[in-house]
From TrEMBL:
Domain of life of the native organism: Bacteria
Protein's organism: Streptomyces gardneri
Protein name in the entry: PPM-type phosphatase domain-containing protein
Record keywords: Hydrolase
One Pfam family it belongs to: SpoIIE
Family annotation (SMART domains): PP2C_SIG (SM00331)
Entries under Gene3D superfamilies matching the protein: PPM-type phosphatase domain
Every PPM-type phosphatase domain range: 181-397
GO molecular function terms noted in the UniProt entry: phosphatase activity
Length: 399
């Protein structure tokens, strides 16, 4: 045995390293259905019991227990009316004092997106427990993300209603619904979650440049989902070969025109944000104008010259530009959000949308919580009518 000099770092394994290392050592070959048993074994070594993984359902209404050996079951919990929901919406741990110990709830965060909540009970909780639980939760969130494409288990848990084939296609196409970084945050919501077809969005953060596209393919059902798939695929390809923003439209337009009948089209909006300076550029192809939110109130629309919807062979669009201020938010939405109306009544309209945005925007609310509440509130205000897809995306430049 070789003994290091007094100045050598201590490379022996501590309890905490052993606990987390056990998870890491098994993670790469762990079957998805074994995430629960491994979590149960890990928290048991910490003195914990009754571990539970709660996943957000696709409608963003409930947190549903993941089934599995070693995991506590239970009924789904309403996000708007439960302690687990409070943890989920605030992205902060919650501790509940129980007769037999402390129930600790922690947000399952992955790159700013949030899969759900992890819960575990301990006799007592100190700062060492909190640190280890936070790191265990981070590893479990990463496992759920990396193994999601290998199984239907997580999808089935999150699906609380029958889902149409078109919606299955759209959900498989989407990026994570939210992303949080030091300079830019995004959150999106799709309605109706289990029957969405033509609406979609996509984004990417490449260095200091944030890219966003939002589309609305005509019609409903598989035809609309197929058009949306082709359009988003063309957008991603054009974005990745780094062509100009206005040329991305031409690329998408050609792809749709070559694959579908002449009367088929997709409205679209593409944006590019310099996350260093707040310089926002965008092009519009028949899409509703985004709204600029400053000081937590709508201060105006980002009106711009528009070209024909994708697929109609419109002229190369003009690039519009605005410089955002730190804390500014931009709300993008599809026409289904404002054109819905109850039988014999007027459309919901932009003015009602603005009123609700101003009511729900508050200084202490994260983008993800505002986007979710706004979508659900608007759906209720429209009388729960969803004859068309109604999608919104909220982006914040943090400066």
């Amino acid at each position: 045995m070789t003994v290091g000099s007094p100045g050598d770092p201590d490379r022996s394994e501590s309890f905490g390293e052993g606990l987390l290392g056990g998870l890491l050592d098994r993670a790469h070959e762990l079957p998805p259905h074994q995430v629960g048993p491994v979590l149960a074994d890990t928290v048991a070594r910490l003195g914990g019991r009754d571990p539970q993984i709660l996943l957000q359902d696709y409608g963003q209404q409930r947190l549903v227990p993941l089934p599995g050996e070693g995991l506590a079951g239970g009924e789904p919990q309403a996000i708007d009316d439960s302690e687990a929901g409070r943890c989920f919406l605030t992205s902060r741990p919650v501790e509940l004092v129980l007769p037999d110990g402390v129930r600790v709830l922690l947000p399952l965060l992955d790159g700013g997106d949030q899969a759900g909540v992890l819960a575990v009970t301990l006799d007592t909780v100190d700062d060492d427990d909190r640190r280890l639980l936070r790191r265990i939760t981070g590893l479990i969130a990463d496992m759920l993300q990396t193994k999601n494409s290998h199984t239907d288990l997580f999808f089935r848990t999150r699906r609380s209603e029958p889902m149409s084939v078109a919606a299955e296609i759209q959900w498989s196409l989407l990026p994570p619904l939210s992303m949080v970084t030091p300079r830019v945050t995004i959150a999106g919501v799709l309605e109706p979650a289990y029957d969405v077809a033509g609406d979609s969005f996509d984004y990417a953060l490449n260095g200091d440049t944030f890219h966003l596209a939002m589309i609305d393919a005509m019609g409903h059902g598989l035809d609309a989902a197929t058009m949306a798939t082709v359009t988003i695929g063309a957008y991603r390809h054009a974005r990745r070969i780094s062509i100009e923003l206005s040329e991305i439209y031409l690329f998408m337009d050609r792809a749709v025109a070559e694959q579908f009948a002449p009367d088929h089209f997709v409205t679209a909006q593409m944006m590019r944000l310099d996350t260093n300076t707040g310089r926002l550029q965008w092009v519009n192809a028949g899409h509703p104008a985004p709204m600029l939110i400053r000081g937590h109130r709508v201060v105006g629309r980002l009106d711009s010259p528009t070209t024909l919807p994708v697929g109609f062979g419109g002229a190369q669009p003009q690039v519009s530009e605005v410089t955002l201020e730190p804390g500014d938010r931009v709300l993008c939405f599809t026409d289904g959000l404002i054109e819905e109306h109850e039988s014999g009544q007027e459309e919901f309209g932009e003015e009602q949308l603005i009123d609700w945005v101003n009511q729900l925007e508050r200084a202490d609310r994260e983008v993800r919580a505002v986007a979710r509440d706004l979508s659900h509130t608007l759906k209720r205000a429209r009388g729960d009518a969803t004859s068309d897809d109604a999608t919104l995306v909220l982006v914040e430049w943090r400066g």
